[in-house]
């Protein structure tokens, strides 16, 4: 019992075992290499500190954003898809602003769970990783994910960067060797404190019993960076977002940081420790470096400094809230130790539930993202989750709500407005615009409304308020439908003369609003936005070249010929429509408070 108490005390109350009165009674548990002794807490320098995402950066600085490197123990799930859809929308928005964007995603392919999953499928770990990694690439293609870098942690260049980083931290005196015994969660791939566990030593996340393990590992001196992390968060409150996530991180740090193991003696499938080939580098000390190794070009000799000079520090790490500790505590301390700059922001979003319940195979309610895309299309999937889940909070998927929202917003409000306007233009103007859109809108308050909503959308995208950005764009189409109904151009055309001329101008005004909608919604629904642009007579090359400045009123010109009207978004049939009346979706009141915690699929 005394030995167990000493072991627990060591991790709850970090100490320097070489400079403490506790050294004697811990010596039976801890074995240190004389040449690599853990140092006293010292000061250090970093090349950059975390800064808010919206701060002005040098024009030449790229906007680098990352998703997690997804663990390939199993195929991609809906949570992985949600993170990547959001990251893609943010990347597309910043490209529209004219920024050089480096959007990084990839797969984390080392660790015990990978080897176990491979053995279960009678394949080698390398074969297993190839198959699952490819399944991510295929899903990202189906979801219109336009990433710039896809890094695999089994890439040789990644291994070289990890080893160089490890050696740099080792040279800084922040890696030491120790013997540790404790309860280990295989799914989390980390040791757990008993106070964190449920009955029968079950992990609170995976609800599976942890196993007792004793290993001789290498540790990273995280506790040395306690004060530095506290100062970083105090000086840069936007480093962790949303704000309630920052509160979580500050609470963890105030509770006292514990050094953590960065190697495994019992795991063969991993990168060998540079100074000890009998151990492999712990999965997180490996995978986090993917954000830097991805910046290394395949044609170059892997080099940490060269990779860093290609875009580090990252502008935004986008992650699920369950891995917030690794990104907002472990990772910054590791970077400080290596003398590298910190990412500007870590954004931890929420989880997804289905029909108000957590998802799980045992409940039979899991959602395969590929099935969702094949059934409803990428635009519908992307729009629903970005519009209906307030980014940062937990969100819920219901098929009825999915169909109702997508039909009401994309098929009815946007799609029907474009189709009926083009139909009237074809019938009365031979599908040709009779006047410049800038002239047609002179003195029309609808134009002012559109301009205000476009600016609102721009601000909301920049603040990562993706739901509010979608809402602002949708309000443009709602205002357009109202304008159309009030003006009733179909009646004006019947009157002829000046009334007919006014009606022709009205159609130009509506179509200009549709053009602006296409640009403003393109980060969320890129395929739908292209179909709108194509209906307005533009080429694919022209659409691919648009920037946010194209949301300025006045793009459509006199004489421009529109395409033949074709529905841009087919209404989705709801199997329950015949049984229950479908109500128009109501805008929900958004709450700032943190939702109650649930054990759900990572989003």
Q: What does this entry look like structurally?
A:
This protein has 603 residues and is α/β, with parallel strands linked by helices. It has a domain at 398-573: Isoleucyl-tRNA Synthetase, Domain 1 (Orthogonal Bundle), CATH 1.10.730. Helices cover 45% and strands 12% of the residues. Strands 3-2-1-12-13-7 form a six-stranded parallel sheet, with helices on both faces. Strand 10 and strand 11 (276-281) form a beta hairpin. Helix 14 (378-388) packs across helix 18 (466-487), helix 15 (399-429) packs across helix 18 (466-487) and helix 20 (497-521) packs antiparallel against helix 21 (526-535). The chain is elongated and about 90 Å long. The model is unreliable at 1-52 and 579-603 (pLDDT under 50). Keywords: Aminoacyl-tRNA synthetase, ATP-binding, Ligase, Nucleotide-binding, Protein biosynthesis. Residues 574-603 are annotated as: Disordered. Belongs to the class-I aminoacyl-tRNA synthetase family.
């Amino acid at each position: 019992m005394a030995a167990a108490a000493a072991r627990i005390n060591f991790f709850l109350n970090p100490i320097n075992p070489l400079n403490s009165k506790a050294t004697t009674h811990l010596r039976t548990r801890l074995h240190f290499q004389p040449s690599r002794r853990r140092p006293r807490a010292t000061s250090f320098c970093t090349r950059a500190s975390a800064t808010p995402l919206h701060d002005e950066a040098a024009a030449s600085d790229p906007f680098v954003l990352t998703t997690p490197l997804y663990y390939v123990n199993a195929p991609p799930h809906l949570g992985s898809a949600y993170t990547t859809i959001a990251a893609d929308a943010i990347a597309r928005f910043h490209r529209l602003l004219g920024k050089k964007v480096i959007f990084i995603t990839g797969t984390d392919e080392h660790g015990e769970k990978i080897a176990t999953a491979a053995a279960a499928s009678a394949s080698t770990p390398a074969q297993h990783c190839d198959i699952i990694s490819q399944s991510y690439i295929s899903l990202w293609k189906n979801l219109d994910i336009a990433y710039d870098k896809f890094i695999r942690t089994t890439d040789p260049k990644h291994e070289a960067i990890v080893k160089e980083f490890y050696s740099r931290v080792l040279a800084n005196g922040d890696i030491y060797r120790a013997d540790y015994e404790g309860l280990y969660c295989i799914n989390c791939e980390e040791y757990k404190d008993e106070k964190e566990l449920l009955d029968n030593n079950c992990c609170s996340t995976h609800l599976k019993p942890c196993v007792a393990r004793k290993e001789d590992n290498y540790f990273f001196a995280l506790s040395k960076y306690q004060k530095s992390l506290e100062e970083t968060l105090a000086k840069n409150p936007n480093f962790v977002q949303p704000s309630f996530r920052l509160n979580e991180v500050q609470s963890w740090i105030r509770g006292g940081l514990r050094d953590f193991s960065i190697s495994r003696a019992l795991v063969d499938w991993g990168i060998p420790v540079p100074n000890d080939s009998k151990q492999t580098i712990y999965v997180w000390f490996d995978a986090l470096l993917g954000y830097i190794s991805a910046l290394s070009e395949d044609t170059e000799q892997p080099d940490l400094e060269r990779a860093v000079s290609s875009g580090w520090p990252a502008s935004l790490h986008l992650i699920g809230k369950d891995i917030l500790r690794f990104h907002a505590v472990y990772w910054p301390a590791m970077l400080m130790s290596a003398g590298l700059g910190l990412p500007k922001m870590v954004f931890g979003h929420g989880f997804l539930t289905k029909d108000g319940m957590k998802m799980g195979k045992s409940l039979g309610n899991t959602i395969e993202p590929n099935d969702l895309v094949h059934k409803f299309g990428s635009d519908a999937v992307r729009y629903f989750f970005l519009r209906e889940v307030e980014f940062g909070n937990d969100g819920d998927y219901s098929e009825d709500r999915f169909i109702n929202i997508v039909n009401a917003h994309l098929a009815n409000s946007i799609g029907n407005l474009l189709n009926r306007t083009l139909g009237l233009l074809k019938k009365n103007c031979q599908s040709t615009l009779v006047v410049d859109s800038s002239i047609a809108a002179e003195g029309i308050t609808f134009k002012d409304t559109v301009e205000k909503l476009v600016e609102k959308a721009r601000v909301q995208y920049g603040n990562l308020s993706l739901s509010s950005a979608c809402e602002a764009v949708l309000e443009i189409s709602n205002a357009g439908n109202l304008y159309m109904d009030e003006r009733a151009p179909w009646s004006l055309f019947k009157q002829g003369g000046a009334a007919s001329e006014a009606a022709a101008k009205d159609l130009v005004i509506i179509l200009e609003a549709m053009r602006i909608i296409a640009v403003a919604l393109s980060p969320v629904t890129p395929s739908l936005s292209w179909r709108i642009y194509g209906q307005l007579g533009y080429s694919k090359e022209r659409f691919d070249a648009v920037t946010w400045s194209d949301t300025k009123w006045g793009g459509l010109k006199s004489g421009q010929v529109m395409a033949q009207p074709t529905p841009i978004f087919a209404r989705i049939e709801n199997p329950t429509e015949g049984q229950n009346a479908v109500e128009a979706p109501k805008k929900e009141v958004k709450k700032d408070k943190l939702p109650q915690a649930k054990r759900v699929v990572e989003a």
